[in-house]
Amino acid sequence: MKRTLVVGVDGSPESRTAADWAAREAVRRDLRVHVVHAWLWQPLAVPVVQDRAVEARRAREILEETEAELTRRHPTLALTAEVVPDVPVPALLRAAKEAEMLVLGSRGYGAVAGFLLGSYGQQLIAAAECPVVSVRAGRGGPVSAADGAEVVVGQQGGVEESADVLRFAFEAAAAHGAPLRAVRAWSLPPVYGYSPGSLWVANQLGGLEPFEKDALEQALEPWRSRYPEVDVVAHVEQGSAGHALLSAASDARLLVVGRRVRDSVLGTRIGSVAHAVLHHAACPVAVVPHR
Fold it and tell me: Where is the UspA domain (predicted)?
Protein backbone atom coordinates (compact mmCIF):
# COMPACT_ATOMS: atom_id res chain seq x y z
CA MET A 1 0.00 0.00 0.00
CA LYS A 2 1.17 3.52 -0.76
CA ARG A 3 2.37 5.75 2.04
CA THR A 4 -0.26 8.23 3.17
CA LEU A 5 -0.65 11.98 3.45
CA VAL A 6 -3.60 13.05 5.63
CA VAL A 7 -5.50 16.31 5.15
CA GLY A 8 -8.24 17.66 7.39
CA VAL A 9 -11.21 19.38 5.74
CA ASP A 10 -14.25 21.21 7.09
CA GLY A 11 -15.76 22.78 3.97
CA SER A 12 -14.00 26.14 4.45
CA PRO A 13 -11.93 27.87 1.72
CA GLU A 14 -8.87 27.33 3.93
CA SER A 15 -9.34 23.58 4.04
CA ARG A 16 -10.01 23.43 0.28
CA THR A 17 -6.70 25.20 -0.34
CA ALA A 18 -4.97 22.74 2.01
CA ALA A 19 -6.59 19.76 0.28
CA ASP A 20 -5.44 20.91 -3.15
CA TRP A 21 -1.88 21.50 -1.87
CA ALA A 22 -1.92 18.04 -0.29
CA ALA A 23 -3.08 16.46 -3.55
CA ARG A 24 -0.33 18.09 -5.58
CA GLU A 25 2.27 17.08 -3.01
CA ALA A 26 1.00 13.50 -3.01
CA VAL A 27 1.24 13.26 -6.79
CA ARG A 28 4.84 14.53 -6.67
CA ARG A 29 5.81 12.03 -3.98
CA ASP A 30 3.66 9.10 -5.14
CA LEU A 31 1.62 9.14 -1.93
CA ARG A 32 -2.01 8.35 -1.22
CA VAL A 33 -4.17 11.19 0.13
CA HIS A 34 -6.57 10.39 2.96
CA VAL A 35 -9.16 13.14 3.44
CA VAL A 36 -10.66 13.38 6.94
CA HIS A 37 -13.70 15.35 8.05
CA ALA A 38 -14.33 15.19 11.79
CA TRP A 39 -18.00 15.46 12.73
CA LEU A 40 -19.63 14.56 16.02
CA TRP A 41 -23.28 15.12 16.89
CA GLN A 42 -23.24 17.45 19.91
CA PRO A 43 -26.66 18.72 20.99
CA LEU A 44 -26.46 22.29 22.27
CA ALA A 45 -27.87 23.25 25.66
CA VAL A 46 -29.39 26.40 24.15
CA PRO A 47 -32.72 27.01 22.37
CA VAL A 48 -31.38 26.54 18.83
CA VAL A 49 -33.04 24.26 16.30
CA GLN A 50 -30.74 21.34 15.41
CA ASP A 51 -31.36 18.50 13.01
CA ARG A 52 -28.99 15.57 13.35
CA ALA A 53 -29.87 14.09 9.95
CA VAL A 54 -29.31 17.41 8.20
CA GLU A 55 -25.93 17.93 9.89
CA ALA A 56 -24.85 14.36 9.12
CA ARG A 57 -25.81 14.80 5.47
CA ARG A 58 -23.83 18.04 5.31
CA ALA A 59 -20.78 16.26 6.74
CA ARG A 60 -21.00 13.66 3.96
CA GLU A 61 -21.50 16.39 1.34
CA ILE A 62 -18.33 18.19 2.47
CA LEU A 63 -16.37 14.99 1.95
CA GLU A 64 -18.01 14.20 -1.39
CA GLU A 65 -17.42 17.74 -2.70
CA THR A 66 -13.75 17.56 -1.69
CA GLU A 67 -13.31 14.13 -3.30
CA ALA A 68 -14.96 15.28 -6.53
CA GLU A 69 -12.84 18.43 -6.77
CA LEU A 70 -9.55 16.64 -6.07
CA THR A 71 -10.37 13.87 -8.55
CA ARG A 72 -11.23 16.43 -11.21
CA ARG A 73 -8.02 18.39 -10.70
CA HIS A 74 -5.73 15.41 -10.11
CA PRO A 75 -7.06 12.39 -12.04
CA THR A 76 -4.04 10.18 -11.20
CA LEU A 77 -4.34 10.79 -7.46
CA ALA A 78 -4.81 7.80 -5.13
CA LEU A 79 -7.55 9.05 -2.82
CA THR A 80 -9.55 7.81 0.16
CA ALA A 81 -11.85 9.77 2.48
CA GLU A 82 -13.89 9.33 5.63
CA VAL A 83 -16.13 11.15 8.07
CA VAL A 84 -14.74 10.46 11.56
CA PRO A 85 -17.28 10.61 14.42
CA ASP A 86 -15.16 12.65 16.80
CA VAL A 87 -13.96 16.19 17.49
CA PRO A 88 -11.15 17.42 15.18
CA VAL A 89 -7.97 17.11 17.27
CA PRO A 90 -8.18 13.45 18.37
CA ALA A 91 -9.73 12.45 15.03
CA LEU A 92 -6.87 13.91 12.99
CA LEU A 93 -4.17 12.72 15.39
CA ARG A 94 -5.42 9.15 15.06
CA ALA A 95 -5.72 9.42 11.28
CA ALA A 96 -2.18 10.77 11.00
CA LYS A 97 -0.60 8.24 13.39
CA GLU A 98 1.28 6.42 10.59
CA ALA A 99 1.13 9.19 7.97
CA GLU A 100 4.01 10.88 6.16
CA MET A 101 2.51 14.27 7.01
CA LEU A 102 -0.69 15.99 8.11
CA VAL A 103 -1.91 19.04 6.16
CA LEU A 104 -4.11 21.78 7.63
CA GLY A 105 -5.53 25.06 6.37
CA SER A 106 -4.99 28.47 8.00
CA ARG A 107 -6.73 31.79 7.57
CA GLY A 108 -4.68 34.84 6.63
CA TYR A 109 -5.34 38.45 7.61
CA GLY A 110 -2.60 40.18 5.63
CA ALA A 111 1.12 40.72 5.98
CA VAL A 112 0.93 42.35 9.41
CA ALA A 113 -1.46 40.04 11.24
CA GLY A 114 -0.37 36.92 9.36
CA PHE A 115 -2.08 33.60 10.06
CA LEU A 116 -5.02 32.99 12.28
CA LEU A 117 -3.93 29.45 13.03
CA GLY A 118 -6.71 28.60 15.47
CA SER A 119 -6.64 26.48 18.61
CA TYR A 120 -7.20 23.20 16.73
CA GLY A 121 -4.22 23.87 14.46
CA GLN A 122 -1.90 24.74 17.34
CA GLN A 123 -2.94 21.64 19.30
CA LEU A 124 -2.39 19.38 16.29
CA ILE A 125 1.02 20.85 15.45
CA ALA A 126 2.13 20.51 19.07
CA ALA A 127 0.92 16.91 19.48
CA ALA A 128 1.30 15.22 16.07
CA GLU A 129 4.00 12.58 15.71
CA CYS A 130 4.44 13.34 11.99
CA PRO A 131 5.31 16.62 10.23
CA VAL A 132 2.36 19.03 10.02
CA VAL A 133 2.05 21.44 7.08
CA SER A 134 -0.02 24.58 7.54
CA VAL A 135 -1.25 26.09 4.26
CA ARG A 136 -2.45 29.65 4.24
CA ALA A 137 -5.69 30.31 2.36
CA GLY A 138 -4.96 31.54 -1.15
CA ARG A 139 -1.20 30.93 -0.80
CA GLY A 140 -0.93 27.22 -1.54
CA GLY A 141 -1.19 27.46 -5.32
CA PRO A 142 1.05 25.51 -7.69
CA VAL A 143 4.66 26.67 -8.04
CA SER A 144 6.71 25.28 -10.92
CA ALA A 145 10.43 24.53 -10.84
CA ALA A 146 10.90 27.25 -13.46
CA ASP A 147 9.75 29.85 -10.90
CA GLY A 148 12.95 29.25 -8.94
CA ALA A 149 11.19 29.49 -5.58
CA GLU A 150 13.24 27.85 -2.85
CA VAL A 151 12.44 25.44 -0.08
CA VAL A 152 13.75 27.14 3.08
CA VAL A 153 14.72 25.21 6.20
CA GLY A 154 15.79 26.38 9.63
CA GLN A 155 18.74 24.43 11.07
CA GLN A 156 19.82 24.53 14.69
CA GLY A 157 21.86 22.40 17.02
CA GLY A 158 24.10 19.55 15.91
CA VAL A 159 24.04 16.92 13.19
CA GLU A 160 21.74 14.46 14.97
CA GLU A 161 19.44 17.08 16.45
CA SER A 162 18.54 18.57 13.06
CA ALA A 163 18.50 15.31 11.05
CA ASP A 164 14.70 14.89 10.91
CA VAL A 165 14.12 18.50 9.90
CA LEU A 166 16.78 18.43 7.18
CA ARG A 167 15.57 15.06 5.88
CA PHE A 168 12.07 16.47 5.36
CA ALA A 169 13.41 19.62 3.70
CA PHE A 170 15.72 17.75 1.31
CA GLU A 171 12.91 15.33 0.39
CA ALA A 172 10.63 18.28 -0.36
CA ALA A 173 13.25 20.08 -2.44
CA ALA A 174 13.98 16.92 -4.41
CA ALA A 175 10.26 16.27 -5.01
CA HIS A 176 9.77 19.84 -6.26
CA GLY A 177 13.00 20.03 -8.24
CA ALA A 178 13.71 23.17 -6.22
CA PRO A 179 16.80 24.74 -4.63
CA LEU A 180 17.13 24.53 -0.86
CA ARG A 181 18.21 27.37 1.42
CA ALA A 182 19.37 26.22 4.86
CA VAL A 183 19.29 29.03 7.45
CA ARG A 184 21.17 28.97 10.76
CA ALA A 185 20.72 32.03 13.00
CA TRP A 186 22.96 32.77 15.93
CA SER A 187 23.30 35.35 18.69
CA LEU A 188 26.15 36.45 20.90
CA PRO A 189 26.05 34.77 24.33
CA PRO A 190 25.73 37.33 27.17
CA VAL A 191 29.36 36.87 28.20
CA TYR A 192 30.50 38.04 24.74
CA GLY A 193 28.00 40.86 24.58
CA TYR A 194 29.24 42.43 27.82
CA SER A 195 32.93 41.51 27.82
CA PRO A 196 35.36 43.07 25.28
CA GLY A 197 37.98 40.62 26.50
CA SER A 198 35.79 37.66 25.60
CA LEU A 199 35.22 39.10 22.12
CA TRP A 200 38.99 39.41 21.68
CA VAL A 201 39.41 35.74 22.63
CA ALA A 202 36.69 34.74 20.15
CA ASN A 203 38.39 36.72 17.37
CA GLN A 204 41.72 35.04 18.14
CA LEU A 205 39.97 31.68 17.70
CA GLY A 206 38.63 32.68 14.30
CA GLY A 207 35.39 34.35 15.37
CA LEU A 208 31.97 32.96 16.17
CA GLU A 209 30.49 33.18 12.69
CA PRO A 210 32.98 30.69 11.16
CA PHE A 211 32.06 28.29 13.96
CA GLU A 212 28.35 28.64 13.07
CA LYS A 213 29.08 28.17 9.36
CA ASP A 214 31.06 25.03 10.10
CA ALA A 215 28.24 23.66 12.28
CA LEU A 216 25.74 24.24 9.46
CA GLU A 217 27.99 22.57 6.87
CA GLN A 218 28.47 19.54 9.12
CA ALA A 219 24.71 19.18 9.51
CA LEU A 220 24.14 19.51 5.76
CA GLU A 221 26.94 17.19 4.61
CA PRO A 222 25.13 13.81 4.91
CA TRP A 223 22.05 15.19 3.16
CA ARG A 224 24.03 16.81 0.36
CA SER A 225 25.51 13.36 -0.27
CA ARG A 226 22.13 11.65 -0.21
CA TYR A 227 20.46 14.24 -2.47
CA PRO A 228 23.18 15.39 -4.89
CA GLU A 229 20.53 16.73 -7.28
CA VAL A 230 19.43 19.39 -4.77
CA ASP A 231 21.17 22.76 -5.13
CA VAL A 232 21.87 23.95 -1.56
CA VAL A 233 22.61 27.45 -0.28
CA ALA A 234 24.00 27.63 3.27
CA HIS A 235 22.89 30.86 4.97
CA VAL A 236 24.27 31.93 8.36
CA GLU A 237 22.94 35.10 9.96
CA GLN A 238 23.38 36.79 13.32
CA GLY A 239 20.08 37.66 14.96
CA SER A 240 16.65 36.24 15.64
CA ALA A 241 15.91 32.87 14.05
CA GLY A 242 12.31 33.88 13.42
CA HIS A 243 13.28 37.10 11.63
CA ALA A 244 16.00 35.36 9.59
CA LEU A 245 13.62 32.62 8.43
CA LEU A 246 10.77 34.99 7.58
CA SER A 247 13.15 37.15 5.55
CA ALA A 248 14.63 34.16 3.70
CA ALA A 249 11.18 32.68 3.02
CA SER A 250 9.53 35.83 1.66
CA ASP A 251 9.27 34.22 -1.81
CA ALA A 252 9.64 30.56 -0.81
CA ARG A 253 7.44 27.67 -1.90
CA LEU A 254 7.79 25.96 1.50
CA LEU A 255 9.33 26.81 4.86
CA VAL A 256 10.45 23.93 7.11
CA VAL A 257 11.13 24.33 10.84
CA GLY A 258 11.57 21.96 13.75
CA ARG A 259 9.60 21.39 16.93
CA ARG A 260 11.41 19.77 19.83
CA VAL A 261 9.49 16.86 21.35
CA ARG A 262 9.75 17.05 25.12
CA ASP A 263 7.55 16.59 28.16
CA SER A 264 6.43 19.72 29.95
CA VAL A 265 4.26 20.46 32.97
CA LEU A 266 2.59 23.08 30.77
CA GLY A 267 1.73 20.51 28.08
CA THR A 268 2.96 20.29 24.51
CA ARG A 269 4.28 23.46 22.87
CA ILE A 270 5.36 24.36 19.36
CA GLY A 271 8.25 26.65 20.28
CA SER A 272 8.78 30.36 19.68
CA VAL A 273 10.37 30.07 16.22
CA ALA A 274 7.68 27.73 14.87
CA HIS A 275 5.01 29.95 16.40
CA ALA A 276 6.44 33.06 14.73
CA VAL A 277 6.73 31.61 11.24
CA LEU A 278 3.33 29.88 11.42
CA HIS A 279 1.66 33.21 12.13
CA HIS A 280 3.58 35.39 9.71
CA ALA A 281 4.97 33.39 6.76
CA ALA A 282 2.99 33.67 3.52
CA CYS A 283 4.10 30.29 2.13
CA PRO A 284 3.10 26.84 3.45
CA VAL A 285 4.97 25.99 6.68
CA ALA A 286 6.01 22.47 7.68
CA VAL A 287 6.69 21.81 11.38
CA VAL A 288 8.75 18.66 11.91
CA PRO A 289 8.95 17.04 15.38
CA HIS A 290 12.43 15.99 16.51
CA ARG A 291 14.20 14.87 19.67
Answer: 3-136, 158-289
Task: Quote the pLDDT of residue 121.
Answer: 83
Q: Are residues 129 and 264 in the same domain?
A: no
211-260 pLDDT, tens digit each: 889 999 999 999 999 999 999 999 999 889 999 999 999 999 999 999 98
Q: Which domain holds residue 130?
A: 1-142
Q: What is the pLDDT of residue 164?
A: 96
Query: pLDDT for 115-157, tens place per residue?
Result: 345 567 888 999 999 999 999 876 666 665 556 799 999 999 8
Residue 282 has pLDDT above 80, yes or no: yes
Which pLDDT score is estimated for 189?
Answer: 61
Same-domain pairing of 28 and 137: yes
* 285-290 vs 132-136, strand pairing mode: antiparallel
Q: What is the CATH number of the domain that holds 226?
A: 3.40.50.620
DSSP string, the chain: ---EEEEE--SSHHHHHHHHHHHHHHHHHT-EEEEEEE------SSS----HHHHHHHHHHHHHHHHHHHHHH-TT-EEEEEEESS-HHHHHHHHTTT-SEEEEEEEE-HHHH-EE-HHHHHHHHHH-SS-EEEEETT------GGG-PPEEEE--S-TTTTHHHHHHHHHHHHHHT--EEEEEEE---HHHHS-HHHHHHHHHTT-HHHHHHHHHHHHHHHHHHH-TTS-EEEEEEES-HHHHHHHHTTT-SEEEEEEE----TT-----HHHHHHHHH-SS-EEEEEE-
**SS3 per residue for 110-121:** HHHHCEECHHHH
Round to whole Å and give the CA distance between 274 and 250: 16
- 44 and 157 share a domain? no
